[in-house]
Amino acid sequence: MTYRPTMNERVRRVATALAMVLAVVGLLGLAGCGGGGESPADGKIEIRLAHVHAADPSSEIHTAAVAFKEYVESRNPDIEVRIFANGQLGSEREVYESMQLGSGATCVISGTAILGNFNQRIGVLDLPYLWEDYGHVHAVLDGEVGQTLAEELRGEGFRVLAWMDSWGFRNVMTSSRPVTEPGDLAGLKIRTIRTPIYTETLRAMGANPTPMSFGEVYSAMQTGVIDGFEHGASVILANRMHEVGQHLALTEHLFGPLVFVYSDHAFGRLDEATQMLLEEAAAHARDVQRGLSAERDAEAMEALRGHGVTIHAIDTAPLAEAMKPLQDSLAAEREATDLLEKIRLAR
């Protein structure tokens, strides 16, 4: 069945989005709340680029944000790109909901998983043990599957400017209890993204999935509310999660592509030349970010070792084989079996 939010869900979404508008109005200043227009003070176009990662070059998202900013501003001095890192404009879902109202952020770089709240079919990109390597990801997202999903997201008010990489696959980090084989995950409370695909994946791996906002993970690890979490090495390093985690198990269960999304309403208000510039800038940021993927993942792993994190290689073959039926069922639930077949054929 096609997912349709209940009336209560729709009311809650609107209420959350309106709350975000009020929360960020002080940040927006003279730029107004129209999702990216001209400032009446100096006539400049202000672009507000949001993300939830630390403002650190070890973050793949922040690196892409900076590359986009530098490209745009170096070619058009009448455009200012302001980067709001660390979730300054709200959680990813709150940012997207505000963008649908034409408020808050003008654009955002995030994982694709959160967009499953707006288009269920995009969840196919986050299925467990789906991707072979970076080349497989690029071939799919730069091809028919990526184009199809981008067109569907336009219907939700989101314009995809670029598909990007996570710097490495997602692994499980734990505080004091090491995971050296798949069976060690049994019963562990592992934080994950608040989306069914991620929670079902961890449950199938034997863990106890514990969804929570990324900003809460550090303190939850410190206080023992959770036993661990799952993410890529670069994100772990950029957000200093090695301070609360001692062990990293190379489960490589999810890849988690990234996406650069612009408010379709705000984009439509721009002239053609500016639209072309932003598309070029997003493509440039994508290429810069992708070009660093393998190198930064390896560097992050070494840096984590240097910080005292013990990295455990485990046999993931049994997990990968066991996940095929889950891939099928999750894709079918999201009416994305056609996309799953195309992704598998692209290997």
The proportion of strand residues reads 15-25%
Query: What's the average pLDDT?
Result: 89
- Given helix and strand content, the structural type is alpha/beta
Low-confidence sequence ranges: 1-12, 14-34
Q: Please tell me what the overall shape is.
A: globular
DSSP summary, beta strand count: 11
Q: Tally the helices.
A: 14
| Largest sheet, strands/sense/barrel | 6 strands, mixed
Strand order of the largest sheet: 7-6-8-5-9-11
Helix content: 40-55%
Work out the radius of gyration: 20 Å
User: What is the ordering of alpha helices and beta strands?
Assistant: HEHEHEHHEEEHEHEHEEHHHEHHH
Distance, first to last CA: 29 Å
Describe the structure.
By secondary structure, the chain is α/β, with parallel strands linked by helices. It has 14 helices and 11 strands. The protein has helices spanning 7-28, 60-75, 92-100, 134-141, 144-154, 196-204, 217-223, 233-238, 264-268, 272-291, 293-306, 317-322, 324-333, 337-345, and strands at 45-50, 79-84, 107-111, 158-164, 170-174, 189-192, 208-211, 228-231, 247-254, 258-263, 310-313. A 6-stranded mixed sheet has the order 7-6-8-5-9-11, sandwiched between helices. A 5-stranded mixed sheet has the order 2-1-3-10-4, with helices on both faces. It is globular. The protein starts with 6 loop residues before the first helix and ends with a helix. Residues 1-12 and 14-34 have low confidence and may be disordered.
